[in-house]
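Complex 481.
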Amino acid sequence: MNEKYEAVIGLEVHAQLLTESKAFCSCSTKFGNVPNSNVCPVCLGHPGVLPVLNKKVVEFITLMGLATNCTINERSVFARKNYFYPDLPKGYQISQYELPVCEHGFVTVTSKDRDKKKVGITRIHMEEDAGKSIHDQAFETLVDVNRCGVPLIEIVSEPDIRSAEEAVQYLTKLRQIVQYLEICDGNMEEGSLRCDANISVRKKGQKEFGTKTEIKNMNSFRNLEKAINFEIERQIEIIEDGGKIIQQTLLWNPDKNEAVPMRSKEEAHDYRYFPEPDLLPVIITESWKKEIAAKLPELPEVRRERFVRDFNLPVYDAEILTLNKGIADYYEDIVKVTKDFKSASNWVMGDVLKIINEEKIDIKDFPIKAENLGELINLINEGTISGKIAKDIFPIMLKEQKSPLEIVKEKNLVQISSSSEIENVIVKILEDHSSEVNTYFEGKEKVFGFFVGQVMKATNGKANPKIVNDILKAKLEKLRN
Ligand code: ADP
Ligand code: ZN
Ligand code: MG
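Predicted structure with magnesium ion bound:
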């Protein structure tokens, strides 16, 4: 990026709420049902029907507001956001405009060099989703209105973000919070977490903001980062060439890695907001707010600090382990079984996360029970198996839902810790490799590793490495004299 410029970014994030039923009717929110089956006269906007607010939606947005340091307004009101689009049979979305539930919050993001920074949250309001137009058909566009009326919250940030990296951190933080609160699954690919980025650039030191553009349609963190960087570069180039930025909405094309202006017709959403006459103002009393606050779970930052304190983990480990609530829960279940907190962390951060990421599965579907992984760690620490054997047992545990001890017994993998047994093997190996022994005495210390390898080979990897080392050293010293 050109050193003379600074980027200014604000994000508008939509999170689909995990309620069973829609925001204003009792239709199911279930994803993947037969198109146009989750519908009723209310969410289709038939004349004469009345919306009834789902109480869960208010609870969820209040949780989010509390978790992001917002003021929870005692009174908020709904508004109709009117526009025409084929996937919006009602002709308007119920939203909040002038009086949202939450205002004036912030979240703290930590950059790669561990600097902490607050990103302000202007507001969080309730909204219902529109339907879905499916354009990729040969000759026609299909409309599925199952999503009409599914509850969303929109989280609008202050223009406090200064780089694509920071935007990614901010969104990661929001996703982490909604997942901890269990109010949204946070899945960007499936669209349950959506993000529009407002971007402008200005000369460093300049106070006023530049003209902004808005990019839509980034369905992954990777695309968010790429799109923002693309747009920053594009704007700087225009300004450097003496041009002016036009305020417009761009659509990110992930295949071409570029953002293109939306057709002006699509962009001309000259929203008309009207007060929603069919819904009463929402009143969140102090006592209801307290009741909801009592349901707040331990939030990611607090949990991370507790992991460092209680399990004596490096901050880095604690951060990775608490990134996802399910992973953190899994880790805590392991350390109920083993007291080797750091080994448990290594197994989760290494072997477990590797598979979760490769197979793209949720930790809930990870085949190894936390309890069994704890037991595996204990088997190593008690000397029953070597660390190397443990790495061989792990893939078996993935396939067969057996305890590690069962597998060890079944496959006869118990570590050989009998000194006499190991000594016999070593004596034989040193006899069979007299020329290597001489090489060793000539100063080629590397040959030591070769002997260890031979012992492991002879014992199918079961010899206790510490005992092998000790005896091998002693035997060689004896031979030298
Ligand atoms: P609009 O009237 O276009 O909706 P808002 O003022 O409501 O704009 O802001 C929408 C989003 O854009 C917010 O997240 C805000 O932080 C961000 N934003 C506002 N002005 C700028 C700017 N000049 N550059 C970058 N982002 C901005
Ligand atoms: Zn309905
Ligand atoms: Mg606005």
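The two ends are 67 Å apart (CA to CA).
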